[in-house]
Amino acid sequence: MKSWIRRLLPFTQWPRPSARSLRKDAFAGITVGLVLIPQAIAYATLAGMPPVTGLYAALLPSIVGILWGSSALLAVGPVALTSLLTYAALHPLAEPESGQWVMLAIWLALYAGLIQFLLGAFRLGVIANFISNAVITGFINAAALIILLSQLPALLGLQSQDFSTALASLQHHLANADATWLWSLAFGLGSIILLWLQKRFAPRLPGVLVVCVVGIAVSALFGYQALGGNVVGLIPAGLPAPQWPPSLTLEQHRALLPAAVIIALISFTEAMASARTLPNPDGRLWNQNQELVGQGLAKITSGLSGAFPVSGSFSRSALNLYVGATSGWSALFAALCTLVCLLFFTSYLQHLPRAVLAAIIIVPVLNLIQPKAFLHLFRTSRDDGVVAVATFIATLIAVPYLHWGVLTGFLLAMLFFLYRRAHPRLIELGLDPAGTLRDRSLNGLPPIAPGVLSLRLDASLTYITAPLMDRFIRERLQKETDLRVILICASAVNDMDATGADTLSQLHQDLQRRGIRLALSGVKKQVRDRLAHIGLLQRLGDDNLFVNNREAIDALAAPPREHD
User: Fold this and answer.
1) What pLDDT is recorded for position 160?
2) What is each CA distance from 122 to 61, 109, 289, 560, in whole angstroms?
3) How crowded is the C-beta side of 295, counted as CA atoms within 13 Å?
4) Which of 83, 6, 73, 94 lies closest to 45, judged by CA?
5) E strand or H helix at 402, and its extent?
6) Is the N end or the C end of the chain the one with fewer CB atoms within 10 Å?
7) What is the number of alpha carbons within 13 Å of residue 439 lying toward its C-beta?
């Protein structure tokens, strides 16, 4: 009963806070909250949503995410990658910031959240592992580059999002610089410089907040909006009113589902990477299924709040740890900052230049572009390197349909995986001077004894690998007519399916007709059980079953006994 309650209400297991820990969590939470507010507005614009929905996504979803998640320090809310995926999914379907766009984003959050919740509830979190690190590396680097390019027009004070039009606009402004454009350029480039200086020389300061306050003050003081500058504009005060969104057509639902699956998987791998690297100060172990439940409920809450999909933020989680958070209470204090902002301070945000928001998005995204990650993958595994590069290229080509990039990488990774499983290491073993079995051809070793063929399959014996082993043995039988024993060293065989068992049984019958023994060594329990089930274990007999290779060597290296 207690375990059921613990799973249903995991926050009941939080340790009782002390006055000292609450002070530390309050400081950490307020610090993160002051960074979260401008980031939430920036990521809302990246998702094509009205700025106020970023604050909605930062309020209740962050509370639900920490209460039902398993990581005490994971900051849940708007993040760059999920916002980009939202924009990419909705771009072909509606106009950004329109009522139709908002409605589709809400349904996207509901679908992605429901997928994550069901995966966690049914303990299927392992499915997220099917998206390999190579796919994630390629996709994140491509997505970061797409985000960077998408924000350059706003950063440089250009109105158009189209690259060619923006380039023409930039050339026009360079030739005919006006005051409005120069102010926009100053806000954008100045914000990037300030954020870089803050990160380098004062990492404990909430640099994002400082840049926003300075930008708002300068914009209001010099009348940037009156000059025609692009600002956030009026943000309505008040709390979100949770409600079920209007219904969609069947075609719209169908169009959202692929993107919802991609967001559910990619955002969880992003959150998972953060949660794995963050220690739990309260001693709880991180649980991917519980985290899926928490992340799923947070997305559903975001949708019901009128906002877009959220996820776990690595940068805010790292800041949470850096400033001394001790428990999930810090996330509650961060949400309190968002609550106060929504109630009393939204009017101060209307003068915030969009160029500043672009800088807030660009600076952390620059850290996601890591060319060295591709080199590392190629050095470790050429297959993974190819998958990462293919995912990167496919994602860039598929804009705005970014899910095709992930799908390309996933399918290619599966093909490589199946190819490796279809071509396992199958070697003949020889006896080295130390008395152990090693690769005979690689080390130039003799066989265990004349007439003995010993081999090892470094894979499970399945419908894919069993024919390879069977052909290997039969080819050797044709070449070496004096073989008297076939020894299969099965210590690396972790499993056996019906095809593998039938192949081994048929091989035993054929060898028996030729007067050749079939022996096995190091057979694991699950394989022994399968062999016993089909009766092959009994037919082989104890004389042909060895506990380990040493026992097989001692028995088979002896000369054959003469029969009367």
Assistant:
1) 62
2) 22, 20, 8, 57
3) 37
4) 83
5) none
6) C
7) 8
Q: Which of 536, 521, 522, 527 is nearest to 486 (CA)?
A: 521
Structure-token match 């997505």, residue found: 143
Output the six-digit token pair for 176: 């005919």
Whole-angstrom CA distances from 416 to 13, 231, 317, 457, 492 are 43, 49, 35, 19, 21
* β-pair type (311-313, 75-77): antiparallel
Contact (CB, 8 A) for 404 and 130: no
CA angle at 164 for the pair 184 and 96, rounded to the nearest 5°: 65
Sheet containing strand 545-546, edge to edge, reads: 437-439, 426-431, 452-457, 485-489, 517-521, 545-546
CB 317 within 8 A of CB 75: yes
Q: What phi and psi, each to the nearest 5 degrees, are found at residue 316?
A: -75, -30
| DSSP H helical ranges for 462-544 | 466-479, 498-514, 525-533, 536-540
Measuring CA to CA, which residue among 356, 33, 52, 100 is closest to residue 234? 52
Whether the ω angle into residue 281 lies within 30 degrees of 0, i.e. cis, is no
Q: What are 438-496's pLDDT values in tens digits?
A: 999 889 898 888 999 999 999 999 999 999 999 999 999 999 989 999 999 999 999 99
Tokens of 297: 């409920």
Determine contact, residues 502/479, Cβ cutoff 8 Å. Answer: no
Instruction: Say if residue 441 is exposed, middle or buried (CB neighbours under 10 Å; 0-12, 13-18, 19+).
Output: exposed
DSSP reduced 3-state for 517:
strand
Q: Are 63 and 99 in contact (CB under 8 A)?
A: no
Task: Classify residue 369 by its DSSP letter.
Answer: -
H or E element, residue 553? helix 549-556
Identify the sign of the CA torsion 131, 149, 82, 108: negative
Which two tokens mark 90?
């909705």
Distance CA 457, CA 495 (A): 12
pLDDT exceeds cutoff 80 at 171: no
Give the bridge partners for 439, in sequence order.
429
Distance of CA 293 to the CA centre of its chain: 16
Q: How do beta strands 485-489 and 517-521 pair? A: parallel
Residue 272 is encoded by which pair of tokens? 């998972």
Confidence of residue 130 (pLDDT cuts 50, 70, 90): confident
Report angle CA 68, 73, 79 to the nearest 5 degrees.
Answer: 85
> Based on the number of CB atoms within 10 Å of its own CB, is 480 exposed (0-12), middle (13-18) or buried (19 or more)?
exposed
DSSP 559: P
Q: DSSP letters along 188-237, please? A: HHHHHHHHHHHHHH-TTS-HHHHHHHHHHHHHHHHTTTTTT--B------
pLDDT at 337: 96
8-state DSSP, 347: G
- How far apart CA 68 and CA 184 sit, in angstroms, is 42
Please tell me the chain's helix, strand, coil percentages from 3-state DSSP, rounded to the nearest 5. Answer: 65, 5, 30
The dihedral sign for the CA sequence 138, 139, 140, 144 = positive
Do 102 and 49 meet the contact criterion of CB atoms below 8 Å apart? Answer: yes
C-alpha pair distances (Å), 108 with each of 249, 252, 294, 508:
14, 10, 17, 57
